[in-house]
Amino acid sequence: MLNILPIAIAVSDSVPEMTPSFIAAMTLTGLAVVFLGLLILIVYLLLSGKIFVAIGNRGKSAKKSEAKPAASAPAPKPAAKATVPKAAPSAPVEDEDEIAAVIAAVIAAMSAVDGKNYAVRSVKPVRRAGSGRSAWAQAGMSDVTAPFSIQ
Questions:
Q1: Could you tell me where the DSSP H helices lie in 68-134?
Q2: 143 with 135: CB under 8 angstroms?
Q3: What is the rounded distance in angstroms from the CA atom of residue 13 to the CA atom of residue 10?
Q4: pTM of this prediction?
Q5: CA 87/CA 93 separation, integer angstroms
Q6: Cβ atoms within 10 Å of 113's Cβ, excluding its own
Q7: What is d(CA 43, CA 141) in angstroms, rounded to the nearest whole number?
Q8: What is the rounded average pLDDT for all residues in the chain?
Q9: What is the Rg, in whole angstroms, of the alpha carbon atoms belonging to the chain?
Q10: Cα separation of 118 and 106, whole Å?
Q11: Residue 74: half-sphere exposure toward Cβ, Cα within 13 Å
Q12: CB within 8 A of 39, min separation 6: which ones?
């Protein structure tokens, strides 16, 4: 059987006393090691995130380049911008027919400016997403949370 008592006595002579300077040195060493580990972890996660985003963007750009035709058409020249007078603020429009007429008028104005023929095919009310928010609230929520979305 192994008697460890003489070994423990020999080792206890080499252990320093618990002085305030020893405690402070051990505390600072421990904190430094922990923060260095956290710093290394943060750098690793940032670099891996950049690598995965670059890989994802490379895959998207390869798909886009495959989808483009070999011969590209010349770019159309920009049309002159039409000046639209600002309308006076009015009460909210409640009639759906009036809303459809306003949308059709805007589309007609866009057709005249661009020189293309646009048409309104149908006007349907917007179904709210599962959140129950209005379209404006949903757009605001999307803008606010965009920096946190996974790409």
A1: 96-114
A2: no
A3: 6
A4: 0.33
A5: 14
A6: 13
A7: 30
A8: 76
A9: 34
A10: 10
A11: 3
A12: none
